[in-house]
């Protein structure tokens, strides 16, 4: 470590990263630290201050892949921090994943995307699918049928996410399709059915609560993307 120009950390917490580096007898000045531990934007800011106090160049990152994907062309790491530091270390970092991207000079950027895209979206969606599978298979429907029906829905979700990004970017939530109120009524019905069957329905119940809150805020006649208005601070 004493001769390495780039030091990469990937530990269970940011506190563990700091404790580990504080316990190592090596001159940090001028080295680059790339942290790939899972964390939050405030934790990235705190580690950035720790690095600056020790004259360490700092990049923060998030791994949007499974361990088995590391080093593969499709593996994506998100890197945030100074462009100059990224450029100096790009070739080595790209060896970790061929789809790695430097997304912003703002040190919190990678963690913002990790919390938002992986936490709030991917993990939530995956959990919702697992809960839906429990409900469907409890009715005796095969997992093969579940997959067959789910695949077109995933393609629909891909298109709908693009529409959501456009609507949010333009702040235009009007629709000539199903309104938020229609979605809200449907998801309340779905949530009640799953619960009445005795299945756990945490994710669909959360969706029902979110859409109902948007409806109560007077957004029922707009499109479902208008939930964005009540989700913000």
Automatic annotation (TrEMBL):
InterPro entries (UniProt xref): 6PGD_dom2 (IPR013328), RedAm-like_C (IPR048666)
Residues annotated as domain NADPH-dependent reductive aminase-like C-terminal: 110-232
One Pfam entry name: RedAm-like_C
Protein name: NADPH-dependent reductive aminase-like C-terminal domain-containing protein
